[in-house]
Amino acid sequence: MKTEQVRYDGKLFIVIYKYSSGYWEIREKDSRFNVQLVHESEVQPVEELGIS
Predict the structure, then answer these.
(1) Cβ contact 43:8 at 8 Å
(2) Beta partners for 23?
(3) What burial class does residue 37 get, using C-beta atoms within 10 Å of its C-beta: 0-12 exposed, 13-18 middle, 19+ buried?
(4) What is the per-residue pLDDT across 2-50, written as a single tens digit (0 to 9) for each?
């Protein structure tokens, strides 16, 4: 399964779950414990390198 990465608050996060309400659970890429609940409008997608 491919993980979706986003940028939030200047840091790289991995998407854990997307709720139908528009809120997402995201986890900081380098931390197992920094989990945030944010609205989808607050995150920016991260482009994967090498994918056309």
Answers:
(1) yes
(2) 39
(3) exposed
(4) 789 999 999 999 999 999 999 999 999 999 899 999 999 999 999 765 4
Note the pLDDT of residue 9: 95
Q: How far is CA 33 from CA 27, 29, 40, 49, in A?
A: 7, 10, 20, 26
* pLDDT of 52: 41
Q: Among all chains, which residue has been given the structure tokens 């989990």?
A: 35
- DSSP state letter for 4: P
SS3 5: strand
Cβ-Cβ contacts under 8 Å for 36 (sequence gap 6 or more): 8, 13, 25, 26, 27, 28
